[in-house]
């Protein structure tokens, strides 16, 4: 058995590509417009891990997506949890669970999917302003 991908429904292609590609650094591996099914599939992965894909599914007909917490979360390892969170916060992305411990943080996609960020290797020493931050929401 081989892992292929995790599928997430999205409501806005541009907002999702900005979040996953521009802000999190994933690369678009493929995009497929399925006219007969009235949907678009986007496959994204970290540039150096093309086998660790997520599939974003955009249905062309309007629909209301439920709360993303019932999915669980995606998780990505980052080189520096503080720098990554600062970059995301500077881009207007809310850090739902700040990296107070130098190890873990949670952010949300435009469709309320939780994304866990984990520090590569050992936890970084706690530092401000992150160490004293409160959660901005539920993770």
Outline of this structure?
By secondary structure, the chain is of the alpha/beta class.
Mean residue pLDDT: 88
Beta-strand portion reads 25-35%
Unreliable stretches (pLDDT < 50, length at least 5) are none
Order of helices and strands: EHEEEEHEEE
Strands side by side in the biggest sheet: 1-4-3-2
Main beta-sheet annotation:
4 strands, mixed
Which helices and strands appear, and what pairs or packs with what?
Layout: E1 5-10, H1 13-23, E2 27-34, E3 39-45, E4 53-59, E5 73-78, H2 81-90, E6 95-97, E7 104-108, E8 114-119
Parallel strand pairs: 1-4, 5-8
Antiparallel strand pairs: 2-3, 3-4, 6-7, 7-8
List keywords for this structure.
139 residues; alpha/beta; 2,3-Dihydroxybiphenyl 1,2-Dioxygenase, domain 1; 2 domains; 4-stranded mixed β-sheet; 2 helices
